[in-house]
């Protein structure tokens, strides 16, 4: 079946499911008393803590992850070594907090309930195994939340004929299957799993204590007829009854259950950054790393879905989000290494170029220090400079110049600096930097072409091997979370990998 035929088949499935009066997609609720008890206790603790629950972060972090794994994992708990680690950490934190919380018994109960979860299966794996046996593994596809869950499920089932995919991988599937089983609630997955399914029938397996019973709709639902309007029926496996779908605030509920990063105290930032400081967001990265990301233009990233030779690119800083893969260097930053290489490429012009660069950056820095960045930005905007809000970023010694030629010319004029020499030197330095960056990109693409990207998607990080000195120490790492607020940090700390356990409870 070619891609056009596959697409037609998917939308034929959607039309057929939409015509089913009782609801074309089934949500099967699996009884899970241990998980339900743990969920209820965790909610109680979080409610008792209220808004000032930061002292509970070290307890709630592993507890939320244990609960989350109950939602997205199907394999029996004896196949999940990390569950035992989470239980031990919950017990340790509960003992530490016994005198902190008003009702001490609820902490003991939570630790006990966590132990029960590590001993009693959720029931999802048992149901899944029965259904696969009935349909036949060669005629099923199982969709899971992420690559780690897929790897764990494959290790347990050991069925070569059975397809186990993430949602993204399922959409690339080119073979037809009669039945798709999705591990987790519909709110966790793209609407297209149901509105353009890759199987004749679709069933979601969800713990009965997860409250949402709603099915995500396509963004085109409001404008489409028939095929995209897929209904849902909810099946209580325990009593073999169908119940009415419950419509809740999907986004809020999902965030309530999803593991959260520990950001700590939110500083007030009631002052402007000094010239050797910047505003930056903290990023938690896979592998126990973190990084401060400033307001610079862009950062080097990796897209494993692209073909060989087109995977390395630059992404604008505002576009960096959870799931983005960054290419970073352990130790000294790539930016500094490339900047020094670009300077070296200038030959006998190095001193002259460095002098003009230092001059206009120093004068801009002084203006910001004397008048404040907001006043400077207003004046720059009045002078016709479109990217005036980047003024503080421009004083970064490693940022060569503004992107726009006109902005740079207007900036030099506003600083009362001779335009010709400063503009020419900065532009030549940028040209050298782009050349060195392109060479380095080629080296990265070559190293990545030999890398095992399945390991990257499963583990979230990958150390690159390469013969080039510039490649050594480079790693690809997935963004696990982006701080909702900015903080003032020293400029020299930005874009450097650092060890930080604040994101250790993220999936």
Number of helices: 17
CATH topology of the largest domain, which one? Answer: Rossmann fold
CATH architecture of the largest domain: 3-Layer(aba) Sandwich
Please tell me the total number of domains: 4
Residues in helix, %: 40-55%
Radius of gyration: 27 Å
Distance between the termini: 35 Å
**Mean residue pLDDT:** 84
Major sheet: size, sense and barrel closure? 8 strands, antiparallel
Q: In total, how many beta strands?
A: 15
Shape: globular
Structural class by helix and strand composition: alpha/beta
| Unreliable stretches | 239-248
Strand content: 15-25%
State the CATH class of the largest domain. Answer: Alpha Beta
How would you portray this structure in words?
There is one protein chain. This protein is α/β, with parallel strands linked by helices and 507 residues long. The protein folds into four domains: 164 residues, Rossmann fold (3-Layer(aba) Sandwich), CATH 3.40.50; 85 residues; 120 residues, Beta Complex (Endonuclease - Pi-scei, Chain A, domain 1); 94 residues, no CATH class. The protein has 17 helices and 15 strands. Strands 8, 9, 10, 11, 12, 13, 14 and 15 form an eight-stranded antiparallel β-sheet that branches. A seven-stranded mixed β-sheet has the order 3-2-4-5-1-6-7, sandwiched between helices. A hairpin with a 4-residue loop joins strand 6 and strand 7. The longest helix has 31 residues.
């Amino acid at each position: 079946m070619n891609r056009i035929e596959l697409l037609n088949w998917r939308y034929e499935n959607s039309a057929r499911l939409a015509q089913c009066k009782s609801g074309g997609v089934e949500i099967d609720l699996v009884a899970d008393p241990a998980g339900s008890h743990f969920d209820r206790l965790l909610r109680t603790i979080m409610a008792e803590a209220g808004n000032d629950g930061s002292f509970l972060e070290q307890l709630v972090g592993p507890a939320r992850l244990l609960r989350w794994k109950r939602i997205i994992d199907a394999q029996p708990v004896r196949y999940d070594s990390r569950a035992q680690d989470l239980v031990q950490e919950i017990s340790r934190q509960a003992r530490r907090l016994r005198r902190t919380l008003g009702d001490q018994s609820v902490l003991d109960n939570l630790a006990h309930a966590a132990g029960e979860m590590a001993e009693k299966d959720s029931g999802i794996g048992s149901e899944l195994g029965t259904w696969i046996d009935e349909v036949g593994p060669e005629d099923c596809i199982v969709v899971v939340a992420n690559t780690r869950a897929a790897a764990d499920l494959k290790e347990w089932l050991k069925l070569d004929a059975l397809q186990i995919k993430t949602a993204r991988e399922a959409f690339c599937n080119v073979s037809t299957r009669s039945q798709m089983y999705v591990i987790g609630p519909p709110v966790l997955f793209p609407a297209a799993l149901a509105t353009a399914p890759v199987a004749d029938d679709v069933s979601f397996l969800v713990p009965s204590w997860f409250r949402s019973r709603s099915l995500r709709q396509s963004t085109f639902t409001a404008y489409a007829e028939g095929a995209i309007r897929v209904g849902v029926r909810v099946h209580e496996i325990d009593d073999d009854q169908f119940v009415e779908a419950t419509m809740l605030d999907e986004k809020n509920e999902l965030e309530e259950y999803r593991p959260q990063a520990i950001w700590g105290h939110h500083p007030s930032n009631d002052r402007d950054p000094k010239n050797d400081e910047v505003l930056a967001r903290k990023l938690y990265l896979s592998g126990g790393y973190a990084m401060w990301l400033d307001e610079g233009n862009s950062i080097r990233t990796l897209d494993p879905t692209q073909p060989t030779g087109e995977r390395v690119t630059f992404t604008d800083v505002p576009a960096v989000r959870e799931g983005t893969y960054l290419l970073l260097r352990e130790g000294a930053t790539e930016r500094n290494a490339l900047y020094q290489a670009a300077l070296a490429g200038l030959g006998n012009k190095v001193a002259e170029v460095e002098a003009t660069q230092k001059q206009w950056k120093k004068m801009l820095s002084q203006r910001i220090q004397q008048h404040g960045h907001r006043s400077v930005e207003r004046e720059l905007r009045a002078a016709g400079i479109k990217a005036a809000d980047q003024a503080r970023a421009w004083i970064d010694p490693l940022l060569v110049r503004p992107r726009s030629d006109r902005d740079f010319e207007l900036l030099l004029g506003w600083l009362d600096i001779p335009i010709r020499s400063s503009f020419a030197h900065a532009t030549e330095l940028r040209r050298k930097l782009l050349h060195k960056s392109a060479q380095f990109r080629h080296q990265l693409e070559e190293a990545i072409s030999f890398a095992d990207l399945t390991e990257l998607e499963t583990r979230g990080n990958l150390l690159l091997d390469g013969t080039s000195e510039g490649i050594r120490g480079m790693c690809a790492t997935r963004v696990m979370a982006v701080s909702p607020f900015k903080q003032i940090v020293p400029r020299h700390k930005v874009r450097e990998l650092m060890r930080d356990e604040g994101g250790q409870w993220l999936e």
